[in-house]
C-alpha cells in the first residue's frame, strides 16, 4: 500500500510544531528576549485633525441695527409721516416729509433782492456812461479854448492890456475845467465801487439760494437700510420713526464663570430647534456689566452679541437659538489619545525595527480625550496605547496574534513554496 504525502498538511503541522517549540524555548530560557519584550495590547496612529474647545449658550435672533428718524424744528414744519408700523421698507424709501413753504418764500425774497441789485447796477452803468461823455466834452473844450487864446495873443501882441486880460481869461477857464474833470472822475469811481458791492451781494444771494435749493431735496427723509418700521410717533416725540434691519444678529446670555472665557472675535455657530442648518458667526460685542442687578450671592448673567455671516431663513426676530462658542481651536493639529501620553510627557513609538522609541512630546489642546501634539511625533506613526508590560526605550515589542483572522481557506490559498518559506522563517526566529 502506497502512502500519499499531503505536503500542505505536513508543512502546516511542522510549522505549528516549530512555532510552539520556539515560544516554549523563549519562555523558559532565563535570558530570553521575551522576558524583556513589551506586550502591546492596543496601539493607535498619529492623526491630523481640527480640535476645538467649545461652550454652550442660548440666544435670540435680533435685528443687526436700527435706524432712527428725529424731528428737527430748524428744518421747518412736519408735512407728513409716510409710513406706518409694520411696513416693509428698503434703503431709500421716504419716511417723513417737511413742509417747504418757508424755504420757498426765502428763496423768492432772495431772488427779488438779486433783481433789485441788478437794476441798480444797470442804472449806475448808465450814469457812468453819461459822466464819461461829459468828461470827454470838457476835455474837448479845454483843447479848443487853449487854441483860441493863442491866436488872440498873437493878433493883439501890441495891446498889452488885451493880452493880459486874455491870459487871465485863459488861466481861469483851464483851472475850472480841471476841477470839473476831477469831480467827474471821483463820481465815476464811486459808482464803480457801488457796482462792485452790488455784484458781491448778488454772488452771496446766489450761494444762499443754492444751499436752500439743495435743502429742498432734503425735505424728505429716507430710510438708510432694508427692514421694517418698528415704531411711529404721531405726537412728534423723538424718534418719530424707528426702522429695524433685515440683517440678523444673535443676542445671548452667559453666567459669570463662562462669560470670563468670552472674547471679541471668537467664532461661534448657531442652530435653531425649528429650522435646519447651521449659521456661522463672530462674537462682536460683549457687555461690561450684568443684565440685571442680583442680590449678593446670586449669579449674574452677562449679555453678548454675535454677528451672523448669513441670515436664518424662516426665523423672525425674537426666535430662540442654540449657540456654540469656540473658546479654543487648533487647526490641522497632530493628535493622539490623551491616554497614550505617559509620565513626564512622553509617548512610545512602535518603530519599524520592532523596538519601542520613547519620545518626549510637547502637548497642546485637549478635547474629549484627544490631545494635540505640538512637537515630538509625525503623522502616521504608531503609538502604544495600552501595554501589559513595562515599557522601556529601545525594548522589543510584540502584539497579540489575532487568531480569529486565521481560516482554512487562507491556508489552502498558499502554495507549496510559501509553506516552506514560512516554516523556515519561523524556525530561524528561534
In short:
Residues 68-236 form the YknX-like barrel-sandwich hybrid domain. The chain is 37% helix and 31% strand.
Please provide a written account of the structure.
This protein has helices at 7-28, 101-155, 160-217, 256-259, 408-412, 416-428; strands at 38-45, 47-63, 66-69, 78-81, 88-89, 94-98, 220-222, 227-232, 241-245, 248-255, 267-271, 278-286, 301-308, 320-337, 346-350, 356-360, 362-367, 370-375, 382-387, 397-398. It is an alpha+beta fold. The strands form five sheets. A six-stranded antiparallel barrel has the order 2-10-13-12-11-14. The chain has a four-stranded antiparallel sheet with strand order 3-9-8-5, with no helix packed on it. A three-stranded mixed sheet has the order 19-1-20, with no helix packed on it. The protein folds into four domains: 33-52 and 330-428, conserved putative lor/sdh protein from methanococcus maripaludis s2 fold (Beta Barrel), CATH 2.40.420; 56-65 and 246-292 and 299-327, Elongation Factor Tu (Ef-tu), domain 3 (Beta Barrel), CATH 2.40.30; 67-99 and 220-241; 101-217.
Task: Set down the secondary structure blueprint.
Layout: H1 7-28, E1 38-45, E2 47-63, E3 66-69, E4 78-81, E5 88-89, E6 94-98, H2 101-155, H3 160-217, E7 220-222, E8 227-232, E9 241-245, E10 248-255, H4 256-259, E11 267-271, E12 278-286, E13 301-308, E14 320-337, E15 346-350, E16 356-360, E17 362-367, E18 370-375, E19 382-387, E20 397-398, H5 408-412, H6 416-428
Parallel strand pairs: 1-20
Antiparallel strand pairs: 1-19, 2-10, 2-14, 3-9, 4-6, 5-8, 6-7, 8-9, 10-13, 11-12, 11-14, 12-13, 14-18, 15-16, 17-18
Helix pairs in contact: 1-6, 2-3
